[in-house]
Amino acid sequence: MNRSQLSKSWQQVVVLAAIALLALAIRLHYVHTAVVDHPLRGDATQYFSYAWNVVHHRVFSIAPPESEAPTPDSFRDPGYPIFLAGIIALRGDTQAFYTTTLDIQAILSALTVALYTFLARRWLGFVAAVTVGLGLTFWPHSITLAGYLLSETLVGFFIAVGLWCLQLGLERRSRTNIVASGIAFAAAGLTNAVIVPAAPLFAGAMAWRDRANRARWLCLLLAATLPCAAWILRSSQLPPNLTSSSRVAMNFVQGSWPEYHSAWFAAISGDPAAKATLSLIDNDITRLHGDRLAGVAAILERMERAPMRYLAWYASKPVELWGWSIGIGQGDIYVYPTFASPLTGTGPLRSITDLLYFANPFLMLLALAGVAAILTTLGRREPALVFAILLGVYATCVFTVLQADARYAVPYRGIEWVAIAAAIVAMANWSKKHRPRRGRFIDPIDLRDGHHS
Fold first, then answer.
1. Which residues share a beta bridge with 447?
2. pLDDT digits over 173-227, tens only?
3. Helices (DSSP H) in 256-306: which residue ranges?
4. How far is it, in rounded angstroms, from Cα 325 to Cα 335?
5. Which residue(s) pair with 338 in the sheet?
6. What is the DSSP string of 347-408?
7. Residue 349: phi, psi to the nearest 5?
8. What separation in angstroms does the CA of 198 have from each of 191, 221, 390?
């Protein structure tokens, strides 16, 4: 790389670093401005209980903090409670714990933006990197979730770290980076079990196909598998009451009812019909816990009475996942009631949020086109990019079977913006290729840090 190219590369790095700093400033501004009404509610209460019991009783238990002898369970995954426990150990469990947690999550969210931005530069070029960086910087759900005691921000950070380390490991032929990638994906799986099979499956497939790098792929496979296997072994020794499989069963049943989100919201205000619907859903959950075969048979029998309705429901769930409104929560871009939010007040953040709201259906179509563009040119793509896209597809399939909600897509929004950028690059590529002009056409895929490969 000559001096001119080196100067251009550094200019690009400065621009992308500035975007990351902007993301950090916005998130810190948000968590210090927005006010969450009763932040310890719902899932947040359970996460805090686990963390409190880990610190004070050395037991991973969902039991309320006032319990004298909490019993261990595995209903929730351990990653986020352990993260909170570390903060409680350092800052106590008062207001300082809460503000410190939000500050750390704001930083992790901004680092996630930075990682995807620099990954996009390697995968798709500088313009794509700016697109990913700005899109993820201003994406409102990624901002608001940093302001709750919920696991999505941490999961998204671990995924981004895993992809970054994987990219570096393959570029530098470094087993250390590959192992770090596996550990990051294991941490993501221990924070949200949905991710557990993803890295081992991809690593196993690549070890079979890519013989030249088989040892590195096996390192990824082992590093991503062993920590999760240890947790699964620990959980298998506990009484079969509150387990992760019971939570999966609950989500599966709830996701099989098209009425669940609307009934959940209406029941808060005391709607008797909504409460009756939730009672039916609870009956299905109880039946499935008691007898898996009988429970599944009852759900299938319900679906057989209106097959087209349920077919349409499941077909619409990916849109529900990648859509805008958070169904199980306050709605719009908020999980819990939130006041004084700079995203819904006045000023530029409100204007950008409104713009993204209207653009979201178009962005979903662009992301779908980007996924198609990458998966139809697999041989020319970086393996880490392929894995990122496949991870987004995998998560979409899992949440379509279980519960689909815009909140659950937050850890994967960086992948969505990479797919959006890939679609833009593909369209620009097609346009240039079919526009008569002098000179040789240069495919953006072949650009690497300002010079041709």
1. 452
2. 999 999 999 999 999 999 999 999 999 999 999 999 998 899 999 999 999 999 9
3. 260-268, 272-290, 292-304
4. 10
5. 36
6. SHHHHHHHHHHHHHHHHHHHHHHHHHHHHTTGGGS-HHHHHHHHHHHHHHHHHHHS---GGG
7. -65, -35
8. 14, 10, 9
Alpha-carbon gap, residue 176 to 215, rounded angstroms: 12
Q: What are 276-293's pLDDT values in tens digits?
A: 998 988 888 888 888 888
Nearest by Cα to 324 from 253, 399, 413? 413
- For 11, 107, 124, 378, the CA distances from 15, given in Å and listed in that order, are 6, 19, 16, 29
Give the burial class of 372: count Cβ atoms within 10 A of its Cβ; 0-12 exposed, 13-18 middle, 19 or more buried. Answer: middle
Kindly write down the DSSP assignment for every residue of 49-83, as one continuous string.
HHHHHHHHHS----S-TT-SSPPP--SS-SHHHHH
**pLDDT at residue 451, as a whole number:** 42
Predicted pLDDT of residue 448: 47
CA–CA separation, 198 and 398 (whole Å): 11
- The domain segmentation of the chain, as residue ranges, is 3-432+445-452
Question: Is the pLDDT confidence value at 56 over 80?
Answer: yes
Q: How far apart are CA 449 and CA 13, in angstroms?
A: 10
Tell me the CA end-to-end span of the chain in Å, nearest whole number: 12
Among 115, 120, 117, 124, smallest CA distance to 377 is for: 124
**Which residues, 6+ apart, have CB-to-CB distance to 111 below 8 Å?**
20, 157, 160
Strands 451-452 vs 447-448: parallel, antiparallel or unpaired: antiparallel
Q: Are 328 and 405 in contact (CB under 8 A)?
A: yes
CB burial string 118-149: b at 16+ within 10 A, e below: bbbbbbbbbbbbbbbbbbbbbbbbbbbbbbbb
Element (H, E) at 448: strand 447-448
Q: How many secondary structure helices (H) and strands (E) does the chain include?
A: 18, 4
Indicate whether this model's pTM tops 0.90.
yes
Asked whether the beta carbons of 120 and 108 are under 8 A apart, the reply is no
Give the model's confidence band at 453: pLDDT under 50 very low, under 70 low, under 90 confident, else very high. very low
- Please determine, for residue 449, whether its predicted confidence score (pLDDT) is greater than 50: no
pLDDT tens-digit readout, 138-158: 999 999 999 999 999 999 999
| Distance (Å, whole) CA 392 – CA 389 | 5
Q: What are phi and psi of 158, to 5 degrees?
A: -60, -40
Write the CA distances from 17 to 154, 157, 214, integer angstroms: 21, 17, 34
* Helix (H), strand (E) at residue 228: helix 214-236
What pLDDT, on the 0 to 100 scale, is given for residue 434?
76
